[in-house]
């Protein structure tokens, strides 16, 4: 997520959280989507670097954050028993 300003980071987090919600067919609010997207952005960056991938620019950051947000929601679903 290098080279992305804080406002862009919030927009990317919000979109990524919303996309993750739609992909996993969950129903969360705007604030939850933002939080999931922001935490997912960090998780996605960690996962991408762990496997040697890098994504640049707005679209790359959005993809990274969305992958992380989906992984986060899936993990939380497993913990809560919603698989």
Automatic annotation (TrEMBL):
Query: What's in the GO CC field?
Result: plasma membrane
Q: Which domain of life is it from?
A: Bacteria
Cleaved signal peptide residues = none
InterPro entries reported for this sequence: Transgly_assoc (IPR007341)
**What sections of the protein cross the membrane?**
6-24, 31-51, 57-79
Membrane association type: Multi-pass membrane protein
Has the keyword Cell membrane been applied to this entry?
A: yes
Look up keyword tRNA-binding and say if it applies.
no
One Pfam annotation reads: Transgly_assoc
* Locations listed in the record: Cell membrane
Cite the entry's keywords alphabetically.
Cell membrane, Membrane, Transmembrane, Transmembrane helix
Q: So what family is this one in?
A: Belongs to the UPF0410 family.
Q: What is this protein called?
A: Uncharacterized membrane protein YeaQ/YmgE, transglycosylase-associated protein family
Annotated organism of origin: Albimonas donghaensis
């Amino acid at each position: 997520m290098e080279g992305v300003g804080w406002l862009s980071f919030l927009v990317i987090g919000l979109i990524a959280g919303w996309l993750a919600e739609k992909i996993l067919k969950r129903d969360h609010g705007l604030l939850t989507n933002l939080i999931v997207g922001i935490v997912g952005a960090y998780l996605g960056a960690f996962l991408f670097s762990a496997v040697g991938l890098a994504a640049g620019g707005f679209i790359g950051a959005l993809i990274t954050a969305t992958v992380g947000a989906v992984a986060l929601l899936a993990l939380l679903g497993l913990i809560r028993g919603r698989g």
